[in-house]
Amino acid sequence: MDLKLLNIGFGNTVLANRVVAIVSPASAPMKRLKEDAKLANKLIDATMGRRTRSIIITDSDHVILSGVQAETIAQRLLVDSSPKEANLMKTEKE
Question: 43: which strand partners?
C-alpha cells in the first residue's frame, strides 16, 4: 500500500488516499457541515489561526479546515498522483 501525504498548508498534511472532497467553505451547507462535525468531535482545525479557505472531507467523516484555497490543494493532489499514473501507463505499454 502506497501512502501519499497531501500538504494542506502551514506544515500540516493528510493522507491523500483518505480525502473524499475538497470544498469551499462559503455556502450554507458547508457551514452546517462544519458545525455538525464540531458537535460530533470530528472537526480538525488546521488553519493555524488564519481564515478558513477550504474544507477537506475524509472517508472517516472527519472534517478538516485549511487556510489554503481549495483549488491549490486540489492541484497539489493532482501533481502528487501524476507520477504514479504515468508509471502505470508506462508499465501497461511494455
Answer: 63
Task: Give 83's pLDDT tier (boundaries 50, 70, 90).
Answer: low
Give the separation between CA 4 and CA 34, rounded to whole angstroms: 25
φ/ψ region of 4 (left if φ > 0, alpha if ψ in -120 to 50, else beta) reads beta
pLDDT in tens, 30-44: 999 999 999 999 999
Rounded Cα distance between 3 and 16, Å, is 8
Strand order in the sheet with 43-46: 19-23, 54-58, 63-66, 43-46
Mean pLDDT of the chain: 88
pTM comes to: 0.83
Q: What is the DSSP letter of 57?
A: E
Task: Look up residue 62 and give its amino acid.
Answer: H
43, 32 Cβ separation under 8 angstroms: no
